[in-house]
Amino acid sequence: MTENEHTSTTPTASENRQIDSLVEQVITTVSSWPAVVVGKGQFNSTTFQIGQPDEARRQSEIGHVHQHPWGLVDISYPQSLREQLLVEGHTEKHHVVPERATTFALESEDDIEQAVFLLRLSYLYHVSSLDRETDTDEQVEIMDLDVAAEISKLQLSDELHTVVTGLISVE
């Protein structure tokens, strides 16, 4: 759904509560992953990042979710992964920057699993991209994460698996 579709009618209080409930379920799941830091973002959003910022490096945002009235999960992926996710219908082009990111709308309980799936792909990409030689608290927390095993749990299509394993270093 586009932003205009979400803002064309004023949601009821009940609809706002439903969206907030869906968003909270996503936040609870994603915030439980090792090294994920939850923060406040723009436009009534909650961000998910890996690690704390410091002078040596920036945080890596794995995505963010907008509370009511939208209930949108926005994620930037490497171009090849973004394109394959779009081809397979897992997500849609971002509602504001369609050439760079994706948007997935939380509309019902059935959408929570897909939103978590999309954020997990981004998380695994960012985890695999971290400098494994750096010994930060976040690194220690995720060093034992078996990225290859986590990827296979996602049950990706052959095409998506090829794209993901081409981007993610699995040792």
Instruction: Please state how the strands of the largest beta sheet are arranged side by side.
Output: 1-2-3-4-6-5
Averaged pLDDT, please? 84
CATH topology: Aspartate Aminotransferase, domain 1
Question: Can you tell me the overall shape?
Answer: globular
Query: Which assembly state applies to the chains in this document?
Result: single chain
CATH architectural name = Alpha-Beta Complex
Count of individual domains: 1
Domain Luciferase: 60-122
Protein name: Luciferase family protein
Pfam families: Luciferase
InterPro entries: Luciferase_dom (IPR040841)
Secondary structure: elements and pairs:
Blueprint: H1 3-7, H2 13-31, E1 36-41, E2 45-50, E3 60-66, E4 72-75, H3 79-87, E5 92-93, E6 102-105, H4 111-129, H5 137-142, H6 147-153, H7 158-167
Antiparallel strand pairs: 1-2, 2-3, 3-4, 4-6, 5-6
Helix pairs in contact: 2-4, 3-7
Protein name: Luciferase family protein
InterPro entries: Luciferase_dom
Domain Luciferase: 60-122
What does this molecule look like?
By secondary structure, this protein is an alpha+beta fold. The protein has a single domain, classed as Aspartate Aminotransferase, domain 1. It is built from 7 helices and 6 strands, in the order ααββββαββαααα. It has a 6-stranded antiparallel β-sheet, covered by helices on one side. A hairpin with a 3-residue loop joins β1 and β2. This is Luciferase family protein. InterPro entries: Luciferase_dom.
